[in-house]
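TASK: fixed-backbone design
INPUT:
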């Protein structure tokens, strides 16, 4: 059993910043350390499909969607079983529910956290 709990969402003005965090827990991590998992963030805006935002591999390599490059930074803390997403220079089009994902053959998803960018 794996649980992913996102936090840090909220309402922010255009140009502002938010930091999302995702905490992973579960007995499986006694067998397979979190460091072995790829970790990523996705988002889903109203009426749209879920889309990839950013990922960080087990080796620390990062990958970003073009629309967040230079604005968002993904990081992980294996000691705390967390993955974070620092979001700067937020735009109205970044409004969405943001989901945490971890993967090692099998994918696990969090319940999502709402990010609203509006003046």
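OUTPUT:
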């Amino acid at each position: 059993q794996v649980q992913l709990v996102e936090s840090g969402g909220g309402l922010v003005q255009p140009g502002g910043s938010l930091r999302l965090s995702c905490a992973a827990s579960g007995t499986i991590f006694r067998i397979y350390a979190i460091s072995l998992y790829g970790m990523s963030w996705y988002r889903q805006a109203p009426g749209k499909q879920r889309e990839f935002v950013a990922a960080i591999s087990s080796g620390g390599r990062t990958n970003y969607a073009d629309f967040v490059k230079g604005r968002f930074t993904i990081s992980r803390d294996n000691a705390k079983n967390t993955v974070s997403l620092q979001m700067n220079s937020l735009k109205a089009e970044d409004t969405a529910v943001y989901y945490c994902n971890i993967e090692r053959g099998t994918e696990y998803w969090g319940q999502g956290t709402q990010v609203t960018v509006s003046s």
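COMMENT: The mean pLDDT is 96.
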